[in-house]
Write a structure and sequence with these properties.
344 residues, alpha+beta, 11-stranded mixed sheet, 4-stranded antiparallel sheet, 7 helices, 26% strand
Length: 344
């Protein structure tokens, strides 16, 4: 069962927000939500549910500039009593890199990143709390620098303190962080590389979905490159490498759909194009693929303390590997896409 995306609120900072803390601004701006408190807002910020100009907010005490765009993902209207803090749970984590300040992990598909009122356990955040406690870092407060949908796999970076989270968030906002994804789509992607510049806004019929427009919404840009395509009887699929230049909700999924390249298995923006595949086995695999075939493959960023360039690559999970092996000749895609590496 697919978990719907939470509703969202978006506003721009005005003169009334000047010199105020971000948590104070949110309490004022969202005063229509019953039982809202600064504590609850601070939990949202710590969980990565608040973004400023497309990047996760660094700190509750952060100050905004005039015209800054703030986006809040609301998992549910806050209850009258504060929600309990997430508990540590012994859940395996695929750690790709870790030091005293941050860690990078490979999130498997089907796992929720942070607790919500409908999903309070079994999340990445629960697992992170256990991992840090097992290392004697009980005082560490993990901050999610990037957010992946439940169905998307791949690399995520987690800060171990509010200060480090703030530095990484500022790096994201200044576009010093490179985010690259792998996507298996229906179609050929012609031209084989390019840039998609289409504004993104909520679907007026269903606010859990996003749509694109040339005139309305938030500026959004995605670079793509076709690195493999299926051939012969298997014709009809392409493997794309996508790089985010902005970080909007469902950006890659909705941008590719706007170009006639829906992602295989996407439960929200997909199309049943498996019916047009000639290879019966490949068609059956695409038809039954349990999620969007999207993998956060690579993150590159300056280390928030040393400034040294970092690159973290997440190997693809088994379900996506099976799809790649069935649809493409492996020599058409460099082996680096199937293995993980970290360059400090």
């Amino acid at each position: 069962m697919n978990v719907p995306e939470p509703p969202r609120r978006v506003f721009r900072a005005d003169r009334g927000d000047a010199a105020r803390r971000l948590d104070q601004i949110l309490v004022r701006r969202l005063s229509d939500l019953p039982g809202l408190s600064r504590t609850r807002v601070q939990q949202w910020i710590g969980a990565g549910l608040v973004r400023v100009n497309g990047a996760p907010a660094g700190r509750a005490a952060e100050k905004l500039g005039l015209g800054d765009e703030v986006e809040v993902l609301l998992s549910e209207a806050p209850p009258q009593r504060p929600a309990p803090s997430p508990i540590p749970q012994e859940i395996p984590l695929a750690i790709l890199y870790e030091d005293d300040h941050l860690l990078a992990l490979n999130k498997p598909p089907g796992v929720v990143v942070h607790p919500t009122f409908g999903h309070s356990a079994g999340t990445v955040l629960n697992a992170l709390l256990w991992h840090l406690r097992s290392r004697g870092e009980e005082s560490a407060r993990p901050g999610l620098v990037s957010r992946l949908d439940k169905g998307t796999s791949g690399v995520m970076v987690v800060a171990k303190s509010g200060e480090i989270h703030g530095r990484l968030a500022r790096a994201v906002r200044s576009r010093k962080v490179e985010k690259e994804y792998l996507a298996v789509v229906y179609g050929r992607a012609v031209p084989p590389k390019g840039r998609i510049d289409r504004k993104i806004l909520p679907d007026p019929v269903d606010p859990r979905r996003m749509i694109t427009s040339r005139t309305e919404g938030r500026d959004s840009s995605t670079l793509y490159e076709r690195i493999a395509e299926s051939e012969g009887e298997r014709e009809g699929l392409a493997l794309l490498r996508c790089r985010l230049l902005t970080g909007r909700m469902h950006q890659i999924r909705v941008h590719l759909k706007s170009q006639g390249l829906p992602i295989v298995g996407d439960p929200v923006y997909g199309e049943p194009r498996w019916k047009g595949l000639h290879d019966a086995d490949l068609a059956a695999l695409c038809r039954g693929f349990p999620r969007q075939a999207l993998h956060a493959w690579r993150l590159a960023f300056p280390h928030p303390v040393t400034g040294e360039p970092m690159e973290v690559v997440a190997p693809v999970p088994e379900d996506l590997r099976e799809l790649l092996e069935a649809g493409f000749k492996l020599q058409a895609a460099p082996s680096v896409y199937f293995s993980g590496r970290t360059v400090p």
